[in-house]
Amino acid sequence: MNDILQTVLEWSSSSPYWLGAAIFTAAFLECLALVGIILPGVVLMFGLALIAGSSSLGLPTVLLLAWLGGLCGDFLSYALGYRLQNKVPRLPILRTHPHWLVNAELHFERYGALSILLGRFIGPLRPVLPLIAGMLSMPFSRFAAVSVFAAAGWAVAYIMPGWLVGAAFELSPPPGFWLEAGWVFGCLGLSVALSVFSCLLGSRMSSLVSAAVYAIALILLMLNWQQLSIFDNYLHDLSQLLRTPWLDHSMVIITRLGDFSTQIVVSSVLCAALLIFRQFRALVFASTTLTSVAISNYLLKHFFERARPDVLLEPLQSFSFPSGHSASGFAFFLVLGVLASRQQPQRWRILWLTVALLPAISIALSRVYLTVHWPTDILAGALLASMICAISLMLTQAHQPIAAFKKQHWYVIAPSLLLTFVALLSWNVPQALQMYAT
Fold first, then answer.
1. Distance in angstroms (rounded) separating the CA atoms of residues 225 and 145
2. Are the C-beta atoms of 367 and 316 separated by less than 8 Å?
3. Are residues 146 and 180 in the same domain?
4. Within 10 Å of residue 270's Cβ, how many Cβ atoms?
5. Alpha-carbon radius of gyration of the chain
6. CATH number at residue 426
7. Which of 20, 209, 347, 369 has the fewest beta carbons closer than 10 A?
8. Does residue 415 fall inside a structural domain?
């Protein structure tokens, strides 16, 4: 298998056209029923993305090809399940591993359409769930709507890291960069690993552990951000290799998710819904987290008084460290992830939080792309929000856990938040684009 992978990667690097075809095919096979179970798609797609990052194939093109390939794999798997119906359990591989099918069915019956989104990030479930959706005659329109978003998030998660590493090798890093990068990502990775590990253990102290490790990481970053100039400047320059008019427009839309006005409105909608549904403990948790993050971020900005990158035609006048967009985005979507994962097994809580954080990560990255923040700014904002969210959750659940929401509640909350976001993001787009002109 290793020899085959090596051959595919060498063949793909010979031409951008072959490389594009290989990325589409790898994404297609990784999401195709049965094939994706045995294909080492993670390794293959990372390798192809690595080659693409150091080639003339831009990131938007690579992401588009991976998204289309994954979507085609989903649709074909759905059609196969819809066609075969009860014959699916007798298919090769599934016949000898029936537990894969049983687990996927249980997951689908429990979460419905949402299982397509959640299962996208679980290797064994990803190529089986579309097959189950077709077998159980899930309406195609609903399946397609969820798959479009799920495939997009999956493409970003699987492709962007490899592409950025490839681009980093293409733009030779200055001396000292890898030392600083190792320090930053080592601390960040260790913090996340300890938090996840404590959650998987199911310990009642998991929120305290998370708060402690994120607090330590934040303090270390606040003490050393001035010594990380090589790290900040290099990643800032690297992000500008991605610039395209299409991506500029997309990033401006994404960054508006974290605007103060947007966050005020959507937070008010969420808190009003919690009040209407008499979810008072959840209301205390949400309001405390969101308010504390906003106040803390404001105070820290004025304490450090760090200047922003001076790139925009009309530079923003507020201070840079920590990033307010990053902090508010992580706070809001962490709150959503925590509330959605109540009364779930520990591993599902982590999955809910991971999916919920995808928009927050996108907001944070958009701030560096649009040259209004340094990388350490967005990391500080994310750590601040994570720490306060963990502290707020620990205090709110000191005597009694937050109750799980009924499905009917989410049928109201989710569409309300989505419509609010769409309305706010659609408002005065030309002025927003002009604000971030370089």
1. 42
2. no
3. no
4. 23
5. 22
6. 1.20.144
7. 347
8. yes
Rounded CA separation 384/327 (Å) = 7
Per the structure, how many domains does the chain have? 2
Task: Please provide residue 390's backbone torsions phi and psi, each rounded to the nearest 5 degrees.
Answer: -65, -40
Q: The tokens of 103 are what?
A: 């687990």
Task: Name every residue whose Cβ is closer than 8 Å to that of residue 11 and which is 6 or more positions away in sequence.
Answer: 18, 22
413 shares its domain with 354: yes
Does residue 102 sit within a domain? Answer: yes
- Report the alpha-carbon distance of residue 241 to residue 170 in Å, rounded: 10
Question: Of 388, 318, 332, 384, which Cα lies nearest the Cα of 360?
Answer: 332
Distance CA 267, CA 273 (A): 10
- Answer whether residue 166 is part of any domain: no
Residue type, 204: R
Residue 158 lies in a domain: no
Nearest to 132, CA basis, from 91, 186, 173, 190: 91
The residue whose two tokens read 């063949």 is: 11
* Separation between Cα atoms, residue 363 and residue 255, nearest integer Å: 5
- Token pair of 39, please? 């294909």
Contact 366, 254 (CB under 8 A): yes
Q: CB count, 10 Å around CB of 343?
A: 11
- Same domain for 124 and 205: no
Same domain, 131 and 208: no
What residues make up the domain containing 420? Answer: 176-435
280 in the same domain as 400: yes
Compute the C-alpha angle 201/348/195, nearest 5°: 45
Whose CA is closest to 136, among 170, 98, 110?
110
* Contact by Cβ (8 Å): 69, 170: no
> Rounded distance, CA 60 to CA 58, Å?
6
Please give the chain's pLDDT, 438 residues, in tens.
445 445 544 545 556 677 778 888 888 887 777 766 666 667 777 777 877 777 767 777 888 888 888 888 888 888 887 777 676 666 666 666 666 666 666 666 666 666 666 667 666 667 777 877 777 777 777 778 778 877 887 787 778 777 777 766 666 777 888 888 888 888 888 888 888 787 767 667 788 888 889 999 999 999 988 888 888 888 888 777 777 777 788 888 888 888 888 889 988 988 998 888 888 888 898 999 999 999 999 999 989 888 888 776 566 777 888 998 999 999 999 998 888 877 666 666 777 777 788 889 889 988 888 888 889 999 999 999 999 999 998 888 877 777 777 777 778 888 888 888 888 877 777 776 777 766
